[in-house]
TrEMBL record:
One of its GO terms (molecular function) is 3-methyl-2-oxobutanoate hydroxymethyltransferase activity. It catalyses: (6R)-5,10-methylene-5,6,7,8-tetrahydrofolate + 3-methyl-2-oxobutanoate + H2O = 2-dehydropantoate + (6S)-5,6,7,8-tetrahydrofolate. Mg(2+) binds at D43, D82, E114. Homodecamer; pentamer of dimers. The lineage of its organism: Bacteria, Pseudomonadati, Pseudomonadota, Alphaproteobacteria, Rhodospirillales. Pathway: Cofactor biosynthesis; (R)-pantothenate biosynthesis; (R)-pantoate from 3-methyl-2-oxobutanoate: step 1/2. It comes from Pararhodospirillum photometricum DSM 122. This is 3-methyl-2-oxobutanoate hydroxymethyltransferase. Its main location: cytoplasm. Its EC number is 2.1.2.11.
Length: 269
């Protein structure tokens, strides 16, 4: 079963929904790979794995290290690596230099760039030079300080039209798909009908051409808060707490290690 290509993803427009989850590590990538079309090494890893308050502190080196881990742990999913804040905004040349490092050093197939009309020129520059790009419109976490916080996008008609224009510009620039985040459902639906490339929703609409969630949210592992758009499929936080409590009790009462866990002389030798 060969690895999915950007052409495979493009072919899913208006067809069977594209299944996408984030992954940051080799063991999780191994577990998810049989079940998904796309593994996204999201810059959400800054908050999920490193405890950062926003994604702004994530570096290119962090993305490359985790991109390598996810490529090693997968065979069949298309791996997309987020370009972190500051790595693409200066110029198309800066973006190409950094995106080329990501593809060359990780073996991932594509990068994802947050942005709308203002990033269209950069996206076209990259696509024309061999870097497949996934777009990301609507709520853009790297814009947190400009936005003054996070809220669903597209409530006012002007805002909805700006998101539509962003999506059109990014699709026309050559992006092979488009994450639509935190966008009013009717706007995300309209946008999905308007663009020629597949949309992948998160807090968007069931009518998007695919869906993505942060894996730690899905597993109930990241418990700071759970946004409305998350569906939890497991409670790993509970499982981890129980395991840690049981281990702690065993150590304190000398029930661990047991005879089977220690190296002793063989009996009667
Ligand atoms: O960083 C991330 O995990 C993302 C997805 C939520 C789309 O960008
Ligand atoms: Na991201």
């Amino acid at each position: 079963d060969r690895r999915r290509t950007v052409r495979d993803i493009l072919g899913r427009k208006g067809a069977e929904p594209i299944v996408c989850l984030t992954a940051y590590t080799t063991p999780i990538a191994r577990l998810l790979d049989p079940h998904v079309d796309v593994l996204l090494v999201g810059d959400s890893l800054g908050m999920v794995l490193y405890g950062l308050p926003t994604t702004l502190g994530v570096t290119l080196d962090m993305m490359i290290a985790h991109g390598q881990a996810v490529v090693r742990g997968s065979q069949r999913a298309l791996v997309v690596v987020d370009m972190p804040f500051g790595s693409v905004q200066e110029s198309p040349a800066q973006a190409f230099r950094n995106a080329a490092r990501v593809l060359a050093e990780t073996g991932a197939t594509a990068v994802k760039i947050e942005g709308g009309q203002e990033m269209a020129e950069t996206i076209a520059f990259l696509v024309a030079r061999g870097v497949p790009v996934m777009g990301h419109v609507g709520l853009r976490p790297q814009m947190v300080h400009t936005l003054g916080g996070f809220r669903a996008q597209g409530r006012e008609e002007a805002e909805a039209q700006a998101i539509m224009a962003d999506a059109q510009a990014v699709a026309e620039a050559g992006a092979f798909s488009l994450v639509v985040e935190g966008t009013l459902a009717p706007v995300a639906t309209r946008l999905t009908q308007a663009v020629s490339v597949p949309t992948i929703g998160i807090g968007a609409s069931v009518d998007c051409d695919g869906q993505v969630l942060v894996i730690d949210d899905v597993l109930g592992l990241f418990s700071d808060f759970t946004p409305r758009f998350v569906r939890r499929y497991a409670d790993l936080s509970g499982a981890v707490s129980e395991a840690a409590a049981a281990y702690s009790a065993d150590v304190r009462t000398r029930r661990f290690p047991g005879p089977e866990h220690v190296f002793g002389l063989k009996a009667s030798v």
